[in-house]
User: What shape does this take?
Amino acid sequence: MPLGSVLGSMATLVVGAVVGPLLSVSPAAAQAGSATAAGPGSGYWEVAADGGIFTYGDAQFHGSMGGKPLNEPIVGMAATPGGGGYWEVASDGGIFAFGPGATFHGSMGGHPLAQPIVSIAATSSGGDYEVASDGGLFAYTTPFLGSMGGKHLNRPVGAMSVDPDGSGYLGVARDGGGFTFGHSPTPRG
Assistant: This one.
């Protein structure tokens, strides 16, 4: 899986439940949050820190947290397996579900965190994970296979991905270090 950096932020491009390379984006887009493909077709979503969703191509709008009070900013989003919905995640661990198949399974919102949440990833079965900058990982309706929470990291984690078959996941640090759990393949740079 190719790795790259995003001007001090990390963002992932999600196609259904398959995660592709990290995006290079403009400083304005890096402030916005992340971009997620809408599944089969030629559309995608972008999410802003205030929770607003922007649709492009054939991506459908299913709702957003834009204009609603948030305790902390939105830091990422993930598409449902079929691309018919999405989840937004805030840095305090709050998860917000929109559209068909984007079921709310729980979140870390309202619970103490050692470090802020930085990314969310969806599984092919419709479950989701959220990961914090210290590598702590939280699983919802999906198996917990381990995390880097509580361990020394050279740089904070900035993104994560889930294997298409759901057998493992990968956390990616801002220095390009990869941490695999389950049957996720070892990253190659």
User: Anything to note?
Assistant: The mean pLDDT is 76.
